[in-house]
Amino acid sequence: MLLRSTGAEPDAPALIDAGRTHTFAELEALAAGTAGGLTRLGVRPGDRVAIASGNDLTFVAAYLGALWAGAVAVPLNPQVPTTVIADELHRVEARVLVCGPAGAAHLDLPGAVTLDALPPGDALPIEVERDDDEIAVLLYTSGTAGMPKAAMLTHGNLAANIGQVLGDPGLALTSQDRTLGVLPFFHVFGLNVVLGVALTAGAAVVAVEPFDPARAVGAVREHGVTVVAAVPLMYDLFTALGDAPADAFAGVRLAVSGAAALDPARARAFTERYGVDIHEGYGLTEAAPIVTSTAAGGATRHGSIGPSVPGVEVRLVDANGDDVAAGDPGEIWVRGPNVFAGYWEDPEATARVVTADGWLRTGDVAVADVDGYLSLVDRLKDLIIVSGFNVYPVEVEEALLAHDAVADAAVAAIPDARTGEAVGAWVVPRAGMAVDADALRAHVGTRLARYKVPARVTVVESLPRSPAGKLLRRALTESA
Predict the structure, then answer these.
(1) What is the CATH T-level fold of the domain 5-367, as seen in this structure?
(2) pTM (2 d.p.)
(3) Is CATH 3.50.50.60 the right assignment for the domain spanning 384-479?
(4) Which residues contact 51 (CB under 8 A, 6 or more apart)?
(5) 291-345: per-residue pLDDT in tens?
């Protein structure tokens, strides 16, 4: 699917990276060559090939090459500490780690290589048969089941969601489109919605690495971008650009937002400045990812995530698993060929989120309008979403408790004007010791990704707990 345009339009642009245009024929040749190099390293069908790279040619070549060789691609955030990368590699028993420029700090890890360092030789012809139910990608997510786990997305899952998007008139791309590639490819939104959908449609992806709002707007104008997919913070930064002309997005016919709630006032501010409406959607890694979008309904509606896309079933259910009455809030349940195969080597966590008849329990609560548009109202889980990235409190609390001066710690969401939510930490010092907030944040930064580092640390004498000893996170959130 991803390279099917090579036969019909081999010379059509597929990826524009660092000002250079790569055609579909070039990407196919690069994928075949990369697959050959990986095979000569000992990679066999089903082996895990991790990728630590930015939005660049290295990532695309490694991703396509891993799939071409029948391997399982494992995209990783190249900006996290090497200790985190090492743990993620160990957990999925990755055979190879392909590092791009953004991931060069991890080249000392066992099995790490650059694209240029792959063993030379003949390109690998496509001979590996993979079924729809075989794993194509493992993506780490905190999504619906606590601490980060590797979600298993099959070839069928990814292909299904691409088809569901392209099958909707409001979301479909054509070979004439150019999509802005600012969402990180190691995130499911960037991987399957931006890269996967665009390549399958024969459209071109204009990669911007690293993300900078001025550079992104410049790329939109220079390369005639027609489709923009971004998170709310990115749209805020576009709006705030003082020297961007009013017609900067004049060529954009479709702008979509996801991964975090889009504030209606800020959406209107973008539209008033640039004359482009933003369609809001909802999805999650475990659904590969798109579930709903206002673009699927045909009209923007501020505060709504829209109806479900074609081929995706959605229910709103109560605590007993029964459908709620019209207008009442209920947990979003999702079913369709895009729903993932479970968490890597964790059947218990899988069983907690997928019912026996295939419904994915998202943990998010919504209400439905009479015309099927959904609006999010709450989350059942303690997940913190920072600029579209998931942070589970427990992993941050464990990092805090590893500091010698911390006796007890709690983490909860705090409001943030730029990122929607941020990580707030409340810590109880050990007797006779003092806690330095900056030093504690630096300590966490050596163990976790930057977006998981607490934006604010509050030193307290004790933490709010129930009579049974359960931490009352809601009390912390309300105090914030």
Answers:
(1) Rossmann fold (3.40.50)
(2) 0.87
(3) no
(4) 59, 62, 63, 66, 73, 74, 75, 76, 97, 98, 100, 103, 186
(5) 999 999 888 999 899 999 999 999 999 988 999 988 899 999 999 999 999 999 9
